[in-house]
Amino acid sequence: MTARYLLKVEAPIGVSAAGIFIGFLLFFTIKKGCLRKKHLKKDVNMMELRRYRFDELKKATDSFSDERLIGSGAFGNVYRGVLGDEKRTVAIKKAHSESNESAEEFKNEIELLSRVKHKNLVGLVGYCSEAKHKILVYEYVSQGCLLEYIVGKERNPLTWQQRVNLAIGSAKGVAHLHGVEPSIIHRDLKPSNILIDDEFEAKISDFGLVKKGPNGDASHVSTQAKGTPGYMDPAYCSSLHLTTSSDVFSFGVILLQLVSSRPALDHTRRQSEYHISNWAKPSIERGMVEDILDVSLQLEPCNNKMMLKMAQLGIRCTAWEPKNRPTIRQVVKELEEALCQVTKSVQRSSYSEESQSFSIDSVLLQRFYVESFEDISIRSASLRCLDVTNSSNNNEEVDEVDGR
Fold this sequence. Notes:
By secondary structure, the chain is of the alpha+beta class. It is built from eleven helices and 14 strands. The strands form five sheets. Strands 1-5-6-4-3-2 form a six-stranded mixed β-sheet, with helices on both faces. Strand 3 (76-83) and strand 4 (88-95) form a beta hairpin. Helix 8 (276-285) packs across helix 10. The radius of gyration is 28 Å and the shape is globular.
């Protein structure tokens, strides 16, 4: 075999080997660059948060005194604190000492929350990670939580407009979590985790159970179902397959509570109506929202069409099969469209020459007869949410109504 022949054979092999080597080199270089960018992005997110010392947060909360305690949960207590150098009021969430959350899990939680910013999500300000201390510092939201307004009744009752606004705002917050890649699943949506700010806007809070979801339509398999009874998706409880529809189920329960101001689980109801969705469903399917309506809404101006729409969405969100539930984005869209239709209907009616109704806060109230000082009967309904109606032959007196 001649040297010239060997050269002809080995030259192409050498070129091919060199090409393969260069290809592998380029592949690993690009992959390394992508990983570096990914870690750099994570580091940038973490750099936007302040790392506090434990003694700073201890001082801000008067040594985590009971007087500063504003909330408590399975994973930790929340305290109102005032940071000395910034004079800023914050909410400081301190994990229980027996919490088994690892340092890596805590770091992942911080990284996860640092990359989601939305006006309807409580903002993460900083954190503390010293020895056994795992503490998160959030923006302080001053007007309490939704639970205090609807079930606890510790505050003034909400008007129907406020209920719709809070429903839309909180749905937008959840939609933002579901919209990132990969999606973020809250896993513990409930009225006590929906805070209300000074402008009466909803802010989703308490991300202790937050979970990074799978991409696309896949599901995440958990080793244990976690959440709050009454708000937990039954499909998730039975299969341990976690998807964004699990949050939708929880949100459906909240919608029904916004309409009725009833607890998610009520031991005073018969067993078949123990859960709020089972209790409300028969009335909502008949279109009789007034049967489940919060009594405070029955005593003041209300729009039962909007309340019925919210309740119908609540029933759909709590469907047993996840595939029969709307997405949270569909919930936002349908709520906004329904509110728009109600607003347009009110505006048209208010300019009608035949209408004998009057408008307060964009809600048309049917005038009611005054039979006597002892007997005032409301023609549209007694203790019911008032419909938008026209009355052409009435020659009645009109009482002043305070529309909030």
